[in-house]
What does this fold into?
Amino acid sequence: MCSIQFIRDRLWFQNPCCQSVASDSAAQNEEPVRRWKRKKRKEETKRVVVSNLPFEGNRWKENPNRHYGGNKIKTTRYSLLSFIPKNVYEQLHRFANVYFVAIAALNFVPVVNAFEPGISVIPVCVIMAITAIKDAWEDFRRFKLDKEINRMDCLVYSRSKKAYVEKCWKDVHVGDFVQLQCNEIIPADILLLYSSDQNGICHLETASLDGETNLKQRQVVKGFSNQNAEFNPELFQNIIVCEKPNNDLNQFKGYMEQPDLTRIGFNRDSLLLRGCTVRNTEAAVGIVIYAGHETKAMLNNSGPRYKRSKIERRMNVDMLFCVGLLFVMCLVGAVGHGIWNGHFLEPPLYIVPDVNGNYLAPALAGFYMFLTMIILLQILIPISLYVSIELVKLGQVFFIHNDIDLYDEEEDLPIQCRALNITEDLGQIQYIFSDKTGTLTENKMVFRRCTIDGKEFSHQENAKRLETYKDLDSDSEDWTKHFSLPSSRGGETATLTRMTTKPLRRSQSARAHFQGHVRHRSLGRCGSSRSQVAFSSTIEKNVIPDNRLLMKVRNASCQLDSLAPFMSAKTTSSITDFFLALALCNTVVVSTATDPRQRVTTPPLIKPSGISLERIHQLFQRLKLASLTSSFTSAQSASGTGDSLSTESTRVCAGSEEKNYFPTLSCSTLTDYDSFQEDSMIREEASGASLQEVCETDTEGSSQPEFCYEAESPDEAALVHAARAYQFTLVSRTADQVAVRLPEGTLLTFDLLYTLGFDSNRKRMSVVVRHPLTKEIIVYTKGADSVIMDLLEDPARATMTMEKRMRKVRAQTQKHLDWYARDGLRTLCIAKKVLTEDDFQKWTNFRLEAETAIENREELLMDTAQHLETKLTLLGATGIEDRLQDGVPDTIAAFREAGIQIWVLTGDKQETAVNIAYSCKLLDQRDTVFTINTESKETCESLLDITLEEVQKAQDISRTMWNIWGIKLPFSWSSAATPNPAVGLVVDGSTLNTIFQGQLEHKFLELAKYSRSVLCCRCTPLQKSMVVKLVRSHLKVMTLAIGDGANDVSMIQAADVGIGISGQEGMQAVMASDFAISRFKHLKKLVLVHGHWCYSRLAKMVIYFFYKNVAYVNLLFWYQFFCAFSGASMIDYWQMIFFNLFFTSVPPILSGVLDKDISAETLLSLPELYKSGRNSEIYKPLTFCVAILEAFYQSLICFFVPYLVHYDSDIGVFTFGNTVNTVSLLTILLHQALEFKTWTLFYWVSIIGSIVLYFVFSTIYNAACVVCNHPTNPYWIMETQFSHPSFYLICLITPTVALLPRYLILTLRGSFQVSPILKAQHLDKLPQEQREQEIKKWKLRKQATSTEATAPSNELTQPVANVSLSIFDQMDAGTSLPGNGGHQNLWPPKQDILGRWMPDTESNDYTKRWTEEEDGAASFFSTEASLGPRMASKPFSGFLPSDGESSGRRSHRRSVSAVTL
It folds into this structure.
């Protein structure tokens, strides 16, 4: 033992006391280094990591890891030394700053200077200083945050102390061993080598990276170490080879080479990412792979993106116009200077020769005068405009961020403004591209319907519950006051109130407060009302079983009571397999409500009930259940012992109540469905009669814990809760076993052999389990119906009887899937497969080879999964509803009124997306919907041509019918008039591929322009971005993209404005967005109100800045005609500087931040007001030119009125200039006052304050400036002006004459041509009640006009029939039936065809209900048939059949090529 310790000491410390041992230990230490050097050239594209322990201390310079970056982060852009040069360099990237710096430098040239050189630098220095102060403040905030994070502590292994010691995050390096504890934040990207969990599992919360509140599982590197032994970092001798640092959160692979040169592969399942939080794991140890800025989290943290807004792009063009105007004015000055001086035979006295007595040549003198004029007229380019725009946008962002209507109280999330420079683009949106799942819908998956073995179960009771359901949190006081459950102690009543132990809010881990040198753990925020478990809202957990299916499950439970069927039969029933698949085929983590952070690894023991049968009999008599006496007696005699009546009823998490659907009665009571219905009804009455006693019986009889299910996706959670509703309860899950409790109370523990997770390529997941009773190896698979149906076993290989049955089950299931899709439900198919021992062993060997492979590992794993998931047996399918978010239909309807085109780009199947589109009012029942599905370029081109021709023909017919010789006819005069039809377009992903690859984009866009809305289904993320780029670049429109998932990131980045929804799919969309909201309905106010305000404010401010600069600089230009074009100025230069910086800057900035032309209530009530911004009516070339012309006119008035008043007088130059400067200031400020729409105290203070500031400054400056501008000094000028009455008269008359045309135009525009904006401004001035009445009248008038335009004929008031034009006659035809879900349906079916689509004979009650709901179908089709002969003269007549037959036999399945109307 001593020798071993001695060798170990020599190995690590290399003590010189024994040279022989030291040489051996040195050789062992150098072995990893030599192997690392051998691989250096070969692994140039990869990262090689070794342990730091052999190089601790003096040998750090020999560590190959020393070249990798440390863990210290620095997000600041500057340091104390680099701030000034770097910030100046960055600001000089802006053209305006370069221009003004060049002008200031030019003024230092003595030949061309127009002002004092030092004074000319002041404006540009002030502007750049303001920007620099803002940048410095932002950088200082980043510095403080970096300092707090770098000083956080973690446990790092020290070789010298042979223990884990605390170190700051900044001191962690690649190759260090870090120990993590529960609820601790991970300091770097770490490869997991040890976990305290016996199965080598470490649970992570990744909310800081992707916002997902569910837990992720990470696995120790397979085959690396024995988890039963404590991990010793000193024994680690392996070399880690992995990929270079990258920002892909979902990709990581590499291998670990052991001393014997064997390799062990690993992937992202073994990587712990920086910023995540360890959950449900006492301790975990790993080696640092990436640190600091090389971690995936930091590589993804790009910060706010810079985008150029539309106004900024327009402003740059106008800036070039101003440069051209400046060039023209300077050229006029130069030419005028030459002409003026050319009239003299001898040089005039004011032209000073050089030292040699020579005069400049006329051409050179003209060139110098050109440069002088540039310096003099430089303020034509508004230098203060850029700073003013930044200040205004900061103010706009502040008010948007603090809007209480955009705050989500439930999620505790305000709106996030990540891009600070495109707020005005929100007011110019023309196209909105939206995702569906999680954006238009809640992404709360609610189990709705299912089909098992070809039999459909509609769950009508569950549907009724969802229609009237209000989603209340389990800790809501309003909910808890209505229910009280008995306590198990002494009959005391225990009210379901908030837990005394505050629930942990795991989503808050990213917001942990960092303080000092304390090791931080993310404990969440106490007192939060948010659910502590992802996808576990009450509406998702509570599922009411279907009565018919419940009866079948109970019958199956009775058959399994003695477990004999399990021992004798090779397979269980389809129903049992179906619900076992729902409970087993997932990655759900099971925990308890009392301890939601700890996984349930062993099934809890159920205490048997001690209630006697006599007590139960008395209870039933007290509840007046006389009808159950006989069945209860038979149950008593059949059992013979005191069996418990109480069921294994497990309440869902947070104490929500679940009914007992499985009383342990005799199977003789379950022989017919009627008796079962009666039994269920009686039990419901019983539960309603005395809930207190029934609950007391249940709680006294069992002590089963309350389970919480933490799933990675809402679909998984919904299916597990559905299985639990039928008492197939998932009890516990480990890496090796899954325990499920069956309805009869039997606990089955399945050996979990393999889990093949879901991925977007396979679109399915599978688990391989060993049945505990039959010992069969079973593969349970669930996935998309389009994939599973192709993997089913070929019926032709089965026997005749089985073939017929399999084909029937498959056909019936497909029919039910079509129903679900038309109801807007998300569909999943459930299947199974039984493996023999030999087949499983062969596949296991294949899988192990793939897992240990180094090259092409992902492809090999995919091949093994596809090899296993074949020849499946179909069990059934599920229909899950993704409910629409609140306010989505109203929001979309408002956008339509605003003239915004809405496209939905989704990856869902076509039928589901179409029905959601009808539900959210994206499509209307009266719309003509074209559906194009094709993979052929020729067919796609033909369909686009035909459809486009018909649409254009309809548009032409609509226009010509309403106009005869230029006279618009009344509606009643023309019975043959045709409406201007609303068109909808539906395409799928394959069609989009054909359009992009076949260069059919222009035809597609031409058709889309005629469409009211466009729906693109089965889209990939790349296709989404391509569609957005296509519309934005080809149509030259403003686009907005909104989504909530990682698949929407490319679409969000491609749009002009990207909106991310912080929903249940993570934060990837938020991190890539410009604005982040929590609900789709918030987009309504963000766009229609804040977008309108931001655009109108900023557009008016930009135009105003151009106007006032042109108006002011023209005063100097007009003066050149009276001073021999000498470049002289009649206004003091300090007055000119302060004119733009102080005297006229505050009012436009306040207007840009605070001015409201229309109130928020009116903008929301009248969305059509948004069209002014959508059409860029405020800031466009015409309005800019009008502003420039107005500036020229007002400058003429402001110059020549004082000039004519003082004509032939002896006043000085500065006296005249002071008068001109004063009247121009008053004119420009009063011009701004005319632009104010809502006068507030701030506006009064800004206008009056600016005027007072000007006079105060001028008075003090003129009194103090004795020799400021030698030889002509502006001394005592303002004081002298105050003593002349003519000065006051000029200040009164000049602004009035200058502003009179503008005032008259505004008055006439409000009297004769009243725009909707002016009407709305008038409405805002009315009392609230009167305003509401006027708004209602406005809407009624618009609705009446809309009705006349879309329905000019009584015969077209009925919906246009949906028919299809099939390119191939051999195409199957069927009926498009609606379901009975919550969404609107496409079209009612013909009643005489209903029989062909009815479920099997066991669904008679469902058939009756369905038929009763569709009683009005016959009248519709009689109307449709009567319309047939007259359709030839109506729009799209080429697509309509001669009779109504095809509309009743339309196939809803995807055909090869079809255009559906």
Remarks:
- The longest strand covers residues 441-452.
- The chain has a mean pLDDT of 74.
